[in-house]
Amino acid sequence: MIALINRFQDWLELTYNADFIAPLLLRAYLAPVFYMAGINKYNGFDSTVA
Predict the structure, then answer these.
(1) Which listed site, 11, 17, 44, 46, has its alpha carbon 20 to 30 Å from 4?
(2) How far apart are CA 10 and CA 17, in angstroms?
(3) In angstroms, rounded to a whole number, what is the distance separating the alpha carbons of residues 5 and 26?
């Protein structure tokens, strides 16, 4: 049982090296959404101000 727990702990320690991947993928997914929202807001700003 201890060997199994140690093996699981070793596997978890290997996954710590890839902790940055999930936030990176989320940002890559949301970047075009926010870009398009910003461009649409910028293009429609003249009608908002005038």
Answers:
(1) 17
(2) 12
(3) 31
Q: What is the C-alpha separation between 11 and 6, in angstroms, rounded?
A: 9
Locate 37 and state its tokens: 């929202």
Q: CA torsion sign, 36 to 39 to 45 to 46?
A: negative
Q: In one letter, which amino acid is 50?
A: A
C-alpha 33/C-alpha 35 separation (Å) is 5
Amino acid at 13: E
Per-residue pLDDT of the chain (50 residues; tens, 9 = 90+): 999 999 999 999 888 888 899 999 999 999 999 999 999 989 888 777 76
Calpha distance 40→47 (Å, rounded)? 12
